[in-house]
Amino acid sequence: MRPDLTGAAGSTRLPRVVAAVYVVVYGALQLVAVISTAFHPAVNDALGIMAIARGIDWSDLATLHNGFFPIGLPVVLALLPQGSWFALASLGSLAFALAALAATWIIAARLASAWWALLAVVAVSVDPTFAAYAVSPGPDVIALGLATVGIAVYVTEATGRAPTVRWWVLACSGALLGFAGVFRYHAALVGVGLVAWCLLQQRQRLAAVSAAVAGIAVGYSPQVVANLLGGYGPLANDGGFTMYQSVVDINWLTTGSIDRAAYASPLRVILDHPVPFAAAYADSATAYVVPVALAAIAVLVRRRRNAGTVLVSLLVAVVAYAVVVSTGNSPRGVLAVVPITAVAIAVIADRAFALSRDVAPGWQRAVALIALAGAVVVVPQARTVLADLTTRQAQERERAAVDAAVVRYGGATSAQQVLTNDFNLYFTDLPGIGPDTLGGWTDISLNGDTPHRDVDLSSVRAFVCSASARGVHLVLWLPANAVPGMDDQLAGALTGSTTATGLRSVGTIGPYQATLVEPGYVCP
Predict the structure, then answer these.
(1) The pLDDT value given to residue 8
(2) Which of 181-190, 363-372, 472-481 comes out lowest in average pLDDT?
(3) DSSP single-letter state for residue 523
(4) Quick one: pLDDT at residue 276?
(5) Higher confidence at residue 442 or residue 142?
(6) Of 103 and 185, which is predicted with more confidence?
(7) Are 209 and 195 spatial neighbours (Cβ–Cβ below 8 Å)?
(8) Bridge partners, 475 (sequence order)
(9) 468 CB-near residues (< 8 Å, 6+ apart)
């Protein structure tokens, strides 16, 4: 018989109540915050996903597949009134965020003591990425909630009193993990942990693995069906394009006009750019150093066999996830392993304090807490703050350049008459948005504020007419990012290598080139 490994010293009622109150208060604070922003916080992929939802035609099921995002959230939104999308998607994310916190408590309470499980809940809730996207109208936290609940189901089964595992419970766990991938492809990768746990069993190994794999397949099947209906392979997504963005180091908002077909094979991208790939992969992988290290330490300090087996499977999931997702170089990628990392912290803290009570002074407990707090909060927060600082600096440089251009050059009398290739906008080349491409010069803004779409890049004349129609008199652009996606004639005109009616290079401001849209040009 497998022992009950609740891990609590005495009753778990009080810490359970405290954890429940904490989750409720946390949810209330997040709800107040999201309402105060009119349900527009941390928009991430929401704009593109909403565009996909608008493009779904229920009489043509091939429109379900878009080649970039999984179908989960777009399909859900397509069934709801458009005016409510931001609010309902944000509230949905919050519900799944709270589900992730509750599931984290369940998992940690099974593998450590109940009070340390509360620490795990707090660690997840204060993680900067989790806190920022807990009410985002995007799919990230929805996938996270499904995956974490799926892990909680199998951990509860693995540490329960039943003498043998029940195949239908493993199948349900797998279905939740697979279904998480219908909202975020990579979220299903944590299912590797479930399969690993099944493989580590001494009895019913084949049945357990079969149930887990079948559950994952069933949960992910809606995406497979959508892929096939759209004329793609069963597991098709835009992985090659994502790989290209990481390797070639072009801001992904500017790469829409690049031929995706040329980079459809991730292996081809790696073989063609081995050194840039290694550098980009190593940089992205650093986000997973702390989660992998903490999960490994938790395995080393385990005290019970069944708990150790579960921890090993969670470590396998974190490692597998890090190996695969690091190629995508997404700052939100680490979300899926945040709960597992917090559970590892609870296990380490539980063991460290148990040892300190027996053989060491109290100061070691303080050291343990400081180390864990640094790993959970300080390190991720430092990465996030640095990334935000870099983005803000880029925005400030661009806006300062716009203001300087208005003062220095004739033609533009206000910032609203200056066109910039703003790399901080979030518009994508997805059904319902066309004919825009994925960012860059087809989603440009005035002074980093107002988006101007459908700017024609097919020729000098088309560009000048498009800009003039919007009252644009001056264009600021970054050559390294803008020129590769343009028509050759227009690129040459902007760089000054050719003479073009309607455009005149007037100078530079910092890294930006300034090009005047000359008045008096007659458009057809």
Answers:
(1) 40
(2) 363-372
(3) P
(4) 82
(5) 142
(6) 103
(7) yes
(8) 419, 515
(9) 517, 521, 523
Residues in Cβ contact with 486 at an 8 Å cutoff, skipping those fewer than 6 apart = 257, 441, 457, 494
Token pair of 26 as six digits: 């946390």
Render 244-304 in DSSP notation, one character per residue.
Answer: HHHHHT--GGG-TTS-GGGG--HHHHHHHSHHHHHHHHHHHHGGGHHHHHHHHHHHHT--S
Alpha-carbon gap, residue 180 to 188, rounded angstroms: 6
Instruction: Please name every residue paired with 507 in a beta bridge, in sequence order, or none if there are none.
Output: 514
CB burial readout 357-388, b (16+ within 10 A) else e:
eeeeeeeebeebeeebeebbeeebbebbeeee
CA–CA gap between residue 404 and residue 451 (Å, rounded): 20
Helix, strand, or coil here: 223?
helix
User: 447 with 402: CB under 8 angstroms?
Assistant: yes
For 89, the 3-state DSSP assignment is helix
Question: What's the pTM?
Answer: 0.75
Q: What is the pLDDT of residue 356?
A: 56
| Bridge partners for 446 per DSSP | 419, 450
Which pLDDT belongs to residue 182?
95
| More confident call, 431 vs 177 | 177
Q: Which residues of 107-129 are buried (b: 16+ CB within 10 A; e: fewer)?
A: bbbbbbbbbbbbbbbbbbbbbbb
Taking every pair of Cα atoms in the chain, the longest distance, rounded to a whole number of angstroms, is 87
Give dist(CA 158, CA 170) in Å, integer.
Answer: 9
Q: Average pLDDT for residues 4-29, to the nearest whole number? A: 76
Residues 160 and 7: their CA atoms lie apart, in Å, by 12
Are 136 and 42 in contact by the 8 Å Cβ rule? The answer is: yes
Q: Rounded mean pLDDT of 439-443?
A: 42
Query: Given a cut of 80, is residue 144 above it in pLDDT?
Result: yes
- Other CB atoms closer than 10 Å to residue 153's CB: what's the count? 24
Which of 64-68, 121-125, 510-514 shows the highest mean pLDDT? Answer: 121-125
Cα–Cα distance for residue pair 512/495, rounded to 1 Å: 11
Q: Kindly report the backbone phi and psi dihedral angles of residue 509, in degrees, each rounded to the nearest multiple of 5, phi listed first.
A: -135, 105
pLDDT at 22 over 50: yes
